[in-house]
Design brief:
single chain; mainly alpha; two-stranded antiparallel ribbon; 4 helices; 70% helix; 3% strand
């Protein structure tokens, strides 16, 4: 499995931001209330990111040779797959919330803090989740074997 590319995450975030902006614009054109994501969403995303890094620590210890016991290969695979999925969902939700904020800030009336702060917390949570997921994914990279002749980079543990 190849590491998550930054271009993938950026493109997901941009598409989600455009979607959030368009959805808020469509709601406002129908004179419906705009979306406000809850602050607990951002806090939950940040908590998931921190938990993901904690889950990757045993795999990292095993890769570095400092572990007391072997790590189950299925556990390592699950951590890598969860990290990859979390980085994408963090970029998706963070970008969507950013699109909502951009729509609110482009209006002629200055929005209240109560309508922008929860969305800003969601953007922050998405960023924290994405960064933590990328860190956890990098923690699970196995270095290449020394006895092989080809000079490939490390691969993720699976």
């Amino acid at each position: 499995m190849k590491p998550t590319r930054a271009s993938t995450l950026i493109s997901v975030a941009v598409v989600a931001a455009v979607g959030g902006f368009a959805l808020d614009a469509a709601l406002a054109s129908r004179q419906s209330p705009t979306l406000i994501l809850g602050a607990p969403l951002g806090l939950t995303l940040a908590f998931i990111g921190i938990a993901l890094v904690v889950m990757a620590v045993p795999v990292r210890r095993h890769v570095k040779g400092k572990a007391d016991r072997r790590v189950d290969p299925l556990y390592a695979t699950r951590v890598v797959v969860l990290a990859k999925a979390s980085s994408i969902i963090g970029a998706l939700l963070g970008g969507f919330a950013l699109g909502l904020i951009v729509y609110l800030l482009t209006r002629s009336v200055v929005p209240s803090l109560g309508s922008t702060l929860p969305n800003a917390v969601a953007v922050g949570g998405g960023i924290v989740l994405t960064v933590c997921a990328l860190v956890a994914e990098r923690m699970c990279i196995v270095p290449p074997d020394d006895d092989r002749d080809d000079q490939q980079g490390g691969t993720t543990a699976n």
